[in-house]
Amino acid sequence: DLDLLSQEPVSDAGAREIASSLERDLSRLPSLAGSPPSCLASGHDIAVRVKGLPPVLLQFPGLPMVPPGGEPRLLTGDSLRTELIASPSIDGLLFCKAVALLKRSALKGRDAFDIWFLRERGAKLDPAGFDAWRRWEELDAGDIAARLKQLSAARLKADLSRYLPEALARQFDSAGYAPLIESARGLLAPWLED
What pLDDT digit, counting tens, does each position of 173-194 carry? Predict the structure, then answer.
C-alpha cells in the first residue's frame, strides 16, 4: 500500500471532500476486484479501498509528520518528469519507521519488521537528527523503554502473520520474533540512557 502525508493538518470536512473527489475520479478506473474503489473519510484520515479486497490501497493520514531532517520533499514539475517515484533514502525510511514505532497510538508489528528489514540492508539512523526529533517530542529514556517493552512475540505474530510470506512467518515464529525485537532495541539503545 502507499501512505501519503499532508504538510498541513486536514480538517474532517476537508477529508470528506477529498474522499468524495477521489471516489469520483477513481470510479473511472478498472478495479482488481471488478468493482470501483471506494474512498472513506474517518475523521481527518482518508482510506481508499477496493470492495472485496482486505488491504487499504492508499491512505492519507491528515496529520503531518515531521520528515527526516525536518525538510519536506516537494514534488515539482521537474521531479515528476525525471523520477518515477520520489521517495526518501533508505536512511530516511529508517528514521520514519523509528518515529512510527514510538509515536503511533498503538504499537504496530510492521514497524518493527520494517526496522529489521531496513537495518539488514544497511540503513543507518542519523543520531543527531533522531535526537533532535526525540527532544522536540519530549521523549525520554523511560518513554522509549516503555514502548520497546510492548514488543512481544505474541503481539508481533498477531500483527504480522497476515502480511508475511509463510516461510518468513515460520522463521520468525520459531525464533520467537527475537530478530525483530533485538533490531528495534538495538536501533534505539543509545537513547535508553539519559
Answer: 999 999 999 999 999 999 997 6
Q: Give the DSSP per-residue string, 103-114.
A: HSSS--HHHHHH
Supply 144's cell numbers.
522509549
Tell me the one-letter amino acid at 22. L
Kindly report whether the global pTM for this prediction surpasses the value 0.70.
no
**Rounded distance between C-alpha atoms, residue 9 and residue 148, angstroms:** 29
Give me the DSSP letters along 21-90: HHHHHHTTS--TTSS-EEEEEETTEEEEEETT--SEEEEE-SS--PPGGG------HHHHHH-SS----H
Query: In terms of DSSP bridges, do strands 37-42 and 45-50 run parallel, antiparallel, or are they unpaired?
Result: antiparallel
From residue 104, give the alpha-carbon distance in Å to each of 35, 51, 131, 172. 32, 27, 18, 23
- For residue 91, what are the CA distances in angstroms to 25, 59, 111, 185? 35, 23, 14, 17
99's CB contacts (< 8 A; 6+ apart) are 65, 66, 133
Whether 95 contacts 130, CB under 8 Å? yes
Residue 115 CA, distance from chain mean position: 11
